[in-house]
Amino acid sequence: CSGFNSITVLHSAPATAKLWHYKKELARVNEMDLPAIARLYGIINKYCNLNELFRSDRKIIIEDQKLIDLLGGKFILDDENEKYNHSFFEVSMAGRFSKVFSHNAKIDLSTECDVVISAQGLAIECKYLHSEKKFRNEFSDGASQLNKRIQAGQAETGIIAIDISNLVDRQRVFDFSQYLFSLFIRNYELLVESRCSLSHGIAADGVSKSILKDQNFIGLIKTYIGHELEMVFHRNFKKSERDKLSEAIVGVFYQANLDLCFEYKESIHPVPLRSACYFVNMELEDSAYNSTQDLFRSMAVGI
Prior knowledge:
The protein is α/β, with parallel strands linked by helices. The protein has twelve helices and nine strands.
C-alpha cells in the first residue's frame, strides 16, 4: 500500500481524517481478529488501487466530484452499505478495462453512462447491489439504460456489470478458507519434518508464505469462491433477466470483494481478494460470443 499516503492529501479535511483513521488502525492489527484485519486491508487496498487513475500510461477521464465521492462515508470496517461503494465499483471496472485495452484507449467515467470506451463502441452500466431483493429491479434498470445509450448512438454494444459482494455469504467463504489453510499447514509441516528435498525451501520461506504461493491452494480457493459467486448470480438471474439481454447487450460481468486473512505462528497474512465471473448472451452469433467470452476472461482477476 505504498500509495496510501499520497491519496490522503488529495481532498478535504473530513476525507483526510477518515483515511488517517484507517492508517492508524494498521498500528493495532495485533489487537484485531482475523476477519477485522481482512476487512481493514481490503479497504486500504481499495484506496491504494486508485493510483491506477493517475498513471501516465492510462487515459481514464473522471470528474473531481466522483473522486470526492470515493472518499466519502464514515470510518468503519463493515462498509458494505456506504454510498461510495457505487463509485468504487465504477472506478474498478474502468481499471479493469484500462488493463485489457490498448493504453491509448480512453476510458470515460464523465458521461451519463457509468463507463464508456468510445474507441470500442462499448458502454458499461454498473450496479452495486445491497441485497438480493434489489437484483431484478437493478438488472432491469441497467438493461434499460444501456438500450437507451445504444439507441441514441452513444455506443454500439453494452455490458451490465454487477457487484454482488453483499449477496455472497462472507462468513462461509472465510470459514472455508481457514479450514483449507489448516489442511495445507499440516501437510507442509509434515514436509518440513520429513526433511525432503522441499523442506529447506519451505523452512526458508516460511510455511504460511509457501502455502500462499502454492498453486493447488490458490486454485482451490479460486474455484470455491467462483462457485459461490455463480450460485448467487444464477439463483437471481432468471429467464426474465436473460430475456432483457438484447442483441446489443453482449453479457453480464459480476464480481465480489471477499477479503481473506491467514495466520500461522503469529505471522499474519491479509489477502485482499476480488473475484469475478461472467455470463455471455447466448443469443449472440458464434464469433461475437467467442470474442465477448475472451474479453470477460481477460478481465477476470482472482486471488
